[in-house]
Automatic annotation (TrEMBL):
MF GO annotations: 2-oxoglutarate-dependent dioxygenase activity; iron ion binding
Keywords: Dioxygenase, Oxidoreductase
Protein name: Ectoine hydroxylase-related dioxygenase (Phytanoyl-CoA dioxygenase family)
InterPro entries registered for this protein in UniProt: Phytyl_CoA_dOase-like
Any Pfam family hit: PhyH
The organism of origin for this protein: Armatimonas rosea
Domain of life: Bacteria
Amino acid sequence: MLTDDQVEFYRERGYVLVKGLFNKDEMARHRQALHDLAHRLYVETNRGSDATWGAARDYVEGGKTSSLQHCHDVQFYDAGLARLIVDERLTGIAAQIIGPNVQLHHTKMFIKPSEKGSPFPMHQDAPFFPHENHSMIAAIVHFDDAPLEKGCVRVVPGSHKLGLLPHDSSGGWHVDPELYKVEDATPCPAEAGDVLFFSYLTIHGSGINSSPEARTTLLIQMRDPLDPPSIRTHESRGQGMMLAGVDPSCCTTKPISDDHSDNPVHKVNGTAGSCGEVTMGGEVKMGGGMAPPTMGG
Ligand SMILES: O=C(O)CCC(=O)C(=O)O
């Protein structure tokens, strides 16, 4: 659990790195599971794709090609990873930040390969899946050490207080790279077992992995079940699972479908709407007039 000082740190800075939340042996087992999953995706079935953002390619020195392996919703691929996302060491802290009820939005594995693991331009996660009350947080679980040279995550402390900022949609939604340089942001070097929690409004990104070892992480995005999406976007089959507490609105036992007309949270002016029309209170809310990206985040 977080100490009072850590809770205060999070409230002020929009992130907190929790050291040694998981032990190194269990991380090594999950790391192997994630690399086995990547092997199934990228080698055995050829279903994997490179997740490098278009805008990130410019940051790689000498125009070298970088790459990034990814998989959304890993809990559908490996039972051990399904158990990890409901582990109370993780969900207990999420509940301290969000409140007693914690609902899954999605999970995302990233493997930044050695020598050439792609960087992430600085961005908020909010434009990818805006919500009314901004309860959404990410927890990045580290399965191996992520020092500076491996492209550890970097944050802009306090940026969660700036609200939803304008983002450039070209090559993945990012803030102005002249205003927010990756190298100027605060690095959060981590060891296997450390977990970085941050708000979806906290500006973050990461550098290239130039080390001889892959960087392996799982990002778990979570929200208060009573915080409705401002717009229907970035839906996935894992969305709505309860990780802690209950869903007081009782609306998440249904599979995601285009018909939310009987859903007490997603009111659609009495009718079911299609993606992009569905609103809360009859109003389309897209911070700064932005259209939502369909990928990434
Ligand atoms: O894993 C990283 O280095 C950053 C990931 C990230 O920024 C994201 O998924 O939004």
